[in-house]
Design goal:
This protein is α/β, with parallel strands linked by helices and 374 residues long. The chain has helices at residues 41-52, 66-82, 98-102, 115-130, 143-156, 199-203, 210-217, 232-242, 245-253, 257-264, 266-273, 275-288, 308-316; strands spanning 35-40, 86-90, 134-136, 160-165, 178-184, 187-194, 218-219, 224-225, 364-365.
Length: 374
Amino acid sequence: MAPRTRPRPPPGYSRGLTSDTGWQTGRMAPAAPPLLLAVDGNSLLHRAYHAGSGDGWLDTDGRPMWALHGLVGFIARAAAHLRPAAVLVGFDCPEDSARKRDYPGYKAHRPAKPADLAEQIADAPELLRAAGVCVVVPPAYEADDVLASAAAAARRDGWRSVLMTSDRDAFALIDSSTSVLRVRNGGFAEAVLIDEAALPGVCGVTPGQYRDFAALRGDPSDNLPGVPRFGATTAARLLASFGSVDAVWSALDFHGTHLVREAVGDLATRHLSDPAAREVVARNRRLMRMRADLELPALEAARLPLSMAVMRRALRARAITLGPSLWALTGGTPPADETDPTPELPRWVFRRGLAAPRAPIPGQLSLFGIESLG
């Protein structure tokens, strides 16, 4: 009798718990879906501008460039840690705003931008385009809407996405394939990658509840007041009890006021019972909703790698010389020099106010552990 031969494993199978053939008979392990890095250009320009305003870097023509330098640096460092297959950068439309037409008070309290910041914001899209980066400036809409539409496009095409911003609005876009890389005070070294499992530990609500949470609390930075007595803690407690604002309205309308009172107390319940509260929440939900249907270039148009020669030529025109740090955008390899400007990051530690630091909550990923994205 001929000896029994061991069959070759099909492509994609791995050794493990075996059947009588000697090979694992579970599901095949496909490669991870490609990753899109979608960047909020305005948000990161503001962050870079204020972080470097004391330096006052100018290019050879005397034009301010430190915020542009910081923006490109943010993108390069994120690419070095995330290794995306594609990069897309969105900017606010500078000429028109659908939200301001809807609600004239939207962002109306903001002072005029400093001239050196406004100049860099105006120059950023063309600088990045000249460098080969895929850029979207949607008519009448904002970078947030580009992030929402990019996440939707990635999901449709079977990609994952990471949305890079310093704003919290993008938390509403988190799902099983979408995470948010939030850049905070302290720059990229303090950035944190927040996924679906992490958000409840960050603000007490799920991604699907985040827009209701923000609508109750309001957003002073956009001149959108919330319901009186509803800060982050009270809003999260209400949504933990009812799931959504619509369920709260139903409770108030159909003899469930005592349940609302049990959740948030007498004073907050009285404010919620005021008809004006429903108008405030409806307005905020409407204005905070991000469009996920903007027309974007195909993801393939945003594919990496970019041309190092093209990038360097465009950046040097503004005296930006990042050199080796562009390796992940241009298909290079990590520099071996210890002075590499994209070193590994320490594990991020979540802090509440001035409380003692503690370990990151499950799902709240440091960039050091990026492989957890799967």
